[in-house]
Amino acid sequence: PAVEGGKAGWQMPSGRWEATQDSLVCTAGPARALYDAPMAGDVRIAATVRAEGRPSWELGFWLALRGAFSVDGYQIRLAGGPEARVEFVRDGVIVIRRLDVRLSIGTDYEILVMREGDRISLFINGLRTLEYRDVFPLRGNRVAIAADGPGLFLRRMILEARGAPLQLAYLALPDKLFQLGQLGEARELYRELALSHPDREEGLIARYKSALCGIELGETESALDELKGLEGTSLEALSALGRARIGFRSKNVQAAWETLRDGCRKFVDAPIRVEIWTLLMNTADRVSRESPEQGAMLYEQLLREPWLEAHEAGQVISEFMALALLSGGKPKVRGESLRLLGGYPHNIPVRLECHTALARAGMTPALIQQSRLQLHATLALGPKLAKRDRWRVILWLCETLIASGELESARRWLSVVMKETPHPSVEGAWARNWLALCWIVGSAPQEALTVLQGHSPLYAARPEPQHLIGAILEAASLSWMGLRDRTVEVLEGESAPADWRKAMDALAGREPMEIFHKFAGGLSPNLQAELYIAGAELQMARQREASATSLRRLAVSIGGEREFVRRLAGNRG
Q1: Quick one: angle between helices 201-216 and 238-249, nearest 10?
Q2: Where are the domains of the chain?
Q3: What kind and span of H or E run contains 163?
Q4: In this structure, what are the phi and psi dihedrals at residue 155, rounded to the nearest 5 degrees?
Q5: What gap in Å lies between CA 262 and CA 280, rounded to an integer?
Q6: How many CB atoms lie within 10 A of CB 210?
Q7: Regarding the domain delimited by 362-570, which CATH topology (the fold level of the hierarchy) does it fall under?
Q8: Hey, which bits of 503-548 come out as E strands?
Q9: Which of 44, 296, 343, 553 has the most CB atoms in a 10 Å sphere around its CB?
């Protein structure tokens, strides 16, 4: 049956939501909305998704949750903004990640999430974006939606379920017995299926699950015999999972780890490899909780593996950096990032994740030269670097150049990104704003205006915070040129977004500055700092020196760990 997605069907255990008959709007987060009734069988969630008022956002669709407060199950996670990505998460472990799907603020996306049997699919605007087949489908029956903060809209939402299947798979009965702890009875049924269908996938899975029963019953030799029966079959990879379970049962975590790592290497193309990888990452996480140092060693072992895929390398680095942040704060993140960059000169996924971690932690004066050398080394990889990755690396390089006052070199590199990247885009917006700032700081407002006005209509059509910064810089350029009476339509015209018009009214002295600060407070620290720098340039150009100084101080207080911010906030003080 189909149900509308509004107020009647949802509990809201955390955050705040506004609900109507067919929509959910997050007004305070992190927030979660849980569908009231269990939903067994196939599930379909459709909605028009839009994010507003923030530079970045995350939205999660949860399926197969095991209870009202569970965080296990399947999650499809959408993220928009500078770190845009789409991820499929199974029981807390990222299985699939796509960085080429660019979601943004202020755009409607038609989202369809489907579970059909053992397949999970995501469609965005009618295009299949993710698909995952789970050999061991999770059996939870709850559905939830999670948002990381306010400004996330789900409209025209429909939730459909076909209900439980009329005919249960033969494995369903022994699986239920297994869950209830009736292991002997479950094993007999698994063995019966394995013997009657020795060459079919269902029979091989039944043999593996029979081995699991033996492991839980403490009958290790019997379990090993079952697992040996999988060798040479299409599901031989299951034997690695089973042997790892034996290691965990005997509290030999190291043996389990080695078995799983070897399984990932040996069964690179096997569908079961997803299960092996999931258990491998769960093992590293378990070890990390008991000993962060030992966990870090395991993650570094994985980074040296030649079979590691790009999204897997990204997950390993993110976990490794989380441990570094926990044990030594941002200084340790910076140090580990540079160390790994030096140790992996040709591994592009590892290098990109380390550059990202370094940029987030803030490039301090002592690290600028080392960071720049590593960024040049990444660019030297040439054709191996995807276009978007190349633009990101150039932008990080430009941050180091601006931070050290090398504005002419920064302008040359930013011009490359401006020429190569499509407009409007996240990378194009950063390059456009930074290039304009370089010209303004270099006392060339006419050049800044040329850069900004070239793509102004395109960026004005998408009211995102990066684009507001560009519009304020356009107004600052005009004011530095003595043309302060010339209106920037996207800021002060009738069609200007209401938030933008209020922000400009505050900067122009027509409204209290608290309005501008309130708007800035909803942004990420990096964007806040750059918004304050842009506002300070406008105030300085209009000879409001006290206001300009106040905004520069705010920029430094928020983003002062970036030498880039300190340079731009202090260069014209």
Answers
A1: 10
A2: 2-163, 362-570
A3: strand 152-163
A4: -115, 160
A5: 10
A6: 27
A7: 1.25.40
A8: none
A9: 296
Please tell us whether the domain made up of 2-163 is placed in CATH 2.60.120.560: yes
Please provide the DSSP assignment of 478-511 as one string. Answer: HHHTT-TTS--HHHHSTTS-HHHHHHHHHHTTSS
Residue 413 backbone class (left: φ over 0; alpha: ψ -120 to 50; beta: rest):
alpha
Give the containing element (helix H, strand E) for 550: helix 545-559
User: 3-state DSSP call for residue 199?
Assistant: coil
Could you tell me the CA-to-CA distances from 23 to 49, 156, 220, 314 in Å, in that order? 10, 6, 53, 34
Inter-CA distances, 433 with 44, 64, 203, 395, 428, Å: 41, 44, 61, 11, 9
Antiparallel, parallel or unpaired: β 74-80 and 85-90 = antiparallel
325, amino acid identity: L
CA 407 to chain centre: 32
E strands present in 226-355: none
Tell me if 19 sits within 8 A of 172, measured CB to CB.
Answer: no
Angle, helices 498-507 vs 513-521, to 10°: value is: 130
Residue 394 CB partners (closer than 8 Å, separation 6+): 379, 413, 414, 416, 417
Vertex 103: Cα angle to 97 and 109 (nearest 5): 110
Omega of the bond leading into 512 within 30 degrees of 0 (cis): no
Kindly tell me the sign of the dihedral angle through the C-alpha atoms of 325, 327, 329, 332.
negative
Q: Tokens for 223, please give them.
A: 């379990």
The token pair at 421 is: 């990247």
Per-residue pLDDT of the chain (573 residues; tens, 9 = 90+): 445 444 458 888 889 999 888 899 999 888 999 998 888 788 999 999 999 877 789 999 999 998 766 678 999 999 997 778 899 998 888 888 887 787 887 788 999 999 988 889 999 999 989 888 786 778 788 999 999 999 899 999 999 987 665 555 677 788 888 878 999 999 999 999 999 999 898 899 999 999 999 999 999 999 999 999 999 999 999 999 999 999 999 999 999 999 999 999 999 988 788 889 988 988 998 899 899 999 999 999 999 999 998 888 888 998 899 899 999 999 999 999 999 999 999 999 999 999 999 988 888 888 999 999 999 999 999 888 999 999 999 999 999 999 999 999 999 999 999 999 999 888 999 999 999 999 999 999 999 999 999 898 888 887 778 889 999 999 999 999 999 889 899 899 888 888 889 999 999 999 999 999 988 887 778 889 999 999 999 999 999 999 999 999 999 999 988 999 999 998 554
Enumerate helices (H) and strands (E) in the chain, giving the number of each.
23, 13
AA identity, residue 85: R
